[in-house]
Amino acid sequence: MPTQELTFRDKPINLNERGGRKWVYAKKPSGKWWKRRTIVAWLLLGFWVAVPFIRINGNPLILLDIANRKFIIFGAIFWAQDTFILALLMLSFVLFIVLFTVTYGRLWCGWTCPQTIFLEMVFRRIEYLIEGDYRERHQLDNSPWTTKKIFKKTLKHGIFILISVAMTNVFLMWFIGSERWLQLITEPISQHLGGFGIMLLISAVFYWIYSFFREQICTMVCPYGRMQGVLLDSKSIMVAYDYVRGEPRGGRGSGDCTDCKQCISVCPTGIDIRNGTQLECINCTACIDQCNKIMKVIGKPQGLIRYTSEAAIKGGHSSVWNARNRAYTVVLFIIFAFFVFTLVSRPEIETTILRTPGLIYQEQDSTYSNVYNIKIVNKTHEEMPLELRLLSHKGKIQMAGNSMVIKDQDKFESTFLVYIPKPEITSDKTEIEFGIFSNDKLLEKYTTTFVGP
């Protein structure tokens, strides 16, 4: 840690001594890391907007239809019957987050978190364009209300409101689909007053977050920053200040840090990265670019602030790729491969066969019969002709209706009778097995009970 004496910080960085809001005026960042983050952000924004319109075999790329319990993930449809698979994927996702944070720190926060992308790459950029950099914005906010100030504030907040409404509508398409959304916006508002009111409320929340609450989402609301205090260790990769090389500061010795505080000026949460790991740090790399500029001016090597680990700084290593980080990265790839495998290896159909409740067996001359209800879900993108066969016993199946053809991503429900010869039924409950075939190919087996005398 730095050799300078530090004061214990017992409150969030964006609160003043009286507990009031201390507005953060971040300087507009620039540099190679900022350019890289910009490219990643615009790719993710493009993906976010395009997802509802991308089709795979006629289905959206991603659809989270909670009302109908239908989820489409990369073209694969998950129904309520797939709860086990979804739970398994969720558990693997949680494990992925834990291992990812232990290995790569808060890389997610700085590069791919929606809060960071929208605030830094959309709303702040508009603010820079209209109101100027941090000095101009600070002067404008503290100046009297003039025609110029009213115009700039009205223009900025008007654009913020439009973007918030657009964000709400794009998110809505993720849950109802682009076709349903297009239908809604072409119908009179009077037919959807409740939904319209919810849309305005969510838009107002977005507007409030990105216009006023801002970085407090990261510093006071989001639990991920607090999780890092438990998950990070000395070998985790993070944006960090090389105190071994930088101290003592301000040219009072051999330290490279000039104490110019430029790293603080660009920080979107207003922290001093030189004070070590802090929950407010989102690893956005703005301080890396700013410090590298100063190092270039004074003729010192770049990388005083860089992606590194506490163990690498303390041990004087330039590489952060230790054996543990390599091993965890391999595990992350295995978890991701499992996620993909689970998506592509689901059964083609999901079958449920249950005895019709309230009915007992019926006796014929040489057979006993039971009535069953059957439901089959087609999880493929093809129409499937199906046939139900009795595998475990001799007998006959009589289906209600003549056809068992299921359209792609559709359901089939019916009732059928099973006739089994009397000599084969030796107890009041006999286990029987059915096979579901398509073009003589066995797709699934299902076991249930047959009730006899």
UniProtKB/TrEMBL annotation:
<keyword id="KW-0813">Transport</keyword>
<keyword id="KW-0004">4Fe-4S</keyword>
<dbReference type="Pfam" id="PF11614">
    <property type="entry name" value="FixG_C"/>
</dbReference>
<keyword id="KW-0411">Iron-sulfur</keyword>
<dbReference type="InterPro" id="IPR017896">
    <property type="entry name" value="4Fe4S_Fe-S-bd"/>
</dbReference>
<dbReference type="GO" id="GO:0051539">
    <property type="term" value="F:4 iron, 4 sulfur cluster binding"/>
</dbReference>
<feature type="transmembrane region" description="Helical">
    <location>
        <begin position="189"/>
        <end position="210"/>
    </location>
</feature>
<feature type="domain" description="4Fe-4S ferredoxin-type">
    <location>
        <begin position="248"/>
        <end position="276"/>
    </location>
</feature>
<keyword id="KW-1133">Transmembrane helix</keyword>
<dbReference type="GO" id="GO:0046872">
    <property type="term" value="F:metal ion binding"/>
</dbReference>
<dbReference type="InterPro" id="IPR014116">
    <property type="entry name" value="Cyt_c_oxidase_cbb3_FixG"/>
</dbReference>
<dbReference type="InterPro" id="IPR013783">
    <property type="entry name" value="Ig-like_fold"/>
</dbReference>
<keyword id="KW-0472">Membrane</keyword>
<keyword id="KW-0812">Transmembrane</keyword>
<dbReference type="Pfam" id="PF12801">
    <property type="entry name" value="Fer4_5"/>
</dbReference>
<keyword id="KW-0479">Metal-binding</keyword>
<dbReference type="InterPro" id="IPR017900">
    <property type="entry name" value="4Fe4S_Fe_S_CS"/>
</dbReference>
<feature type="transmembrane region" description="Helical">
    <location>
        <begin position="76"/>
        <end position="102"/>
    </location>
</feature>
<feature type="transmembrane region" description="Helical">
    <location>
        <begin position="38"/>
        <end position="56"/>
    </location>
</feature>
<keyword id="KW-0249">Electron transport</keyword>
<feature type="transmembrane region" description="Helical">
    <location>
        <begin position="158"/>
        <end position="177"/>
    </location>
</feature>
<feature type="transmembrane region" description="Helical">
    <location>
        <begin position="327"/>
        <end position="345"/>
    </location>
</feature>
<dbReference type="GO" id="GO:0005886">
    <property type="term" value="C:plasma membrane"/>
</dbReference>
<keyword id="KW-0408">Iron</keyword>
<dbReference type="Pfam" id="PF13746">
    <property type="entry name" value="Fer4_18"/>
</dbReference>
<protein>
    <submittedName>
        <fullName>Cytochrome c oxidase accessory protein CcoG</fullName>
    </submittedName>
</protein>
<dbReference type="InterPro" id="IPR051684">
    <property type="entry name" value="Electron_Trans/Redox"/>
</dbReference>
<dbReference type="InterPro" id="IPR032879">
    <property type="entry name" value="FixG_C"/>
</dbReference>
